[in-house]
Amino acid sequence: MNSKYLVVFCTCPDRDTANTLARAVVGEKLAACINIVPGLASVFRWAGVVQEENEVLLVAKLAARGYERLQRRLLELHPYDVPEIIALELATGSHDYLNWLDEQTEQ
After folding, report:
1. Which of 21, 31, 32, 37 is the most exposed place for a label (fewest CB within 10 A)?
2. pTM, full prediction
3. Confidence class of residue 7 from pLDDT cuts 50, 70 and 90?
């Protein structure tokens, strides 16, 4: 990873699961902020069958140095066998916000 900051997506089966995961990882300083986006429709192939499910999307912002810890914690807490956990490098952002990400993410 070249970027110092990441945006991480993680889908959840419902709002309660999303809230539980978001509060845990923000509380543990593994992410500075998580947006919870309801109303997501996901179409995917699982066990050889195309499926469609309603899900909730978590959008986490963090310093890149904490990605491995965030991923481990999400895998521990998540009810899916293979949860979606993907990270995108953040190209730029406001200086004050990026400083805040550093301050709020565990060293």
Report:
1. 37
2. 0.93
3. very high
